[in-house]
Amino acid sequence: MFVCVHNAGRSQMAAAYAHHLSGGAVEVRSAGSAPAETINPAVREALLEEGIDISAEKPKVLTDQAVRASDVVITMGCGDTCPFYPGKRYEDWVLEDPAGQGVDAVRPIRDDIKRRVTELLASLGVPVQPLPGDR
């Protein structure tokens, strides 16, 4: 599960990468502590450059149920709003917020998230698949 404040940028990128890089082998969730109305357009554009289309995604609110159903919870700037349950793996990724930024500023954030998701999948023993744009 990937959690950020608005679920419109960082957590959406991480979820998209986790889904695509795992070839669908892991169940991926994302949510926000204060969800936005829509996905950040610069984030959508930056992922399209990678061959990933998230235009159908919508920001979702963080729920206790979603956290309970997750084995790994990655937070990105949402502080203490994420519920904590013993036995889950938690990581906090310090990443710049893409809110209000153009695609040029979002690309380095995207690339950092891609690297972190690749490392996360490797730590879970999940083989990394090529992205749609890599084929």
Structure keywords:
Rossmann fold, 135 residues, 4 helices, single chain
Provide the fold topology.
Layout: E1 2-4, H1 10-21, E2 30-32, H2 41-48, H3 64-68, E3 72-76, E4 89-92, H4 103-123
Parallel strand pairs: 1-2, 1-3, 3-4
Helix pairs in contact: 1-4, 2-4
Characterise this structure.
- This protein is an alpha/beta fold.
- The protein has a single domain, classed as Response regulator (Rossmann fold, 3-Layer(aba) Sandwich).
- It is built from 4 helices and 4 strands; from the N terminus they run βαβααββα.
- A 4-stranded parallel sheet has the order 2-1-3-4, with helices on one face.
- Strand 1, helix 1 and strand 2 form a beta-alpha-beta unit.
- The protein starts with a strand and ends in a 12-residue tail after the last helix.
